[in-house]
Write a structure and sequence with these properties.
Shape: globular
CATH topology: Alpha-Beta Plaits
Helix content: 25-40%
CATH class: Alpha Beta
Strand content: 35-45%
Radius of gyration: 17 Å
Number of domains: 1
Distance between the termini: 16 Å
Strand order of the largest sheet: 2-5-1-6
CATH architecture: 2-Layer Sandwich
Order of helices and strands: EHEEEEHEEE
Structural class: alpha+beta
Number of helices: 2
Length: about 130
């Protein structure tokens, strides 16, 4: 199953330590080479060209970053293809542990979410999203 990891944290303006970036680079290289990681990327600060396109009551509204009202921002993502939820959790924990080791004062969240398969659709049945196989 594919899992997306979404990393969020307070946007402080402080760049990550080079040792953390090196460790993340090595881990990503290993995971990509093994075929477990499908894609990954870090995001620039919200002050560097971000925007939010909001839809409310049938109207679109474009807001340019940075977003003063936002406490945490999305900082990066990774997509993995892993056989079990347990392996996905272990991978997410290993990634977050790199932050603990190389940037101890950093606080953030890695949200791990299963993804619909490319051939799957989504239906809401009795209030629950269900996978539909084509």
């Amino acid at each position: 199953m594919r899992y997306m990891f979404l990393i969020s944290a307070l946007e402080t303006g402080a760049p990550p330590p080079p040792s953390l970036m090196d460790a993340i680079g090595k881990l990503a290289e290993q995971e990509l080479a093994s075929g477990r990681m499908i894609s990954q990327g870090g995001l620039l600060p919200t002050a560097m060209g971000s925007a939010r396109i909001e839809l409310k009551r049938g109207r679109l509204k474009v807001l340019d970053g940075p977003f003063a009202e936002t406490k945490e921002v999305l900082g990066g993502f990774a997509i993995f293809d892993l056989p079990t939820r347990e392996e996905a959790l272990a991978s997410a924990e290993a990634f977050m542990d790199l932050h603990r080791v190389h940037w101890p004062e950093w606080e953030g969240v890695c949200e791990m979410r299963p993804m619909f398969e490319e051939s799957a659709g989504c239906a809401v049945i009795e209030g629950e999203a269900k996978l539909l196989r084509a």
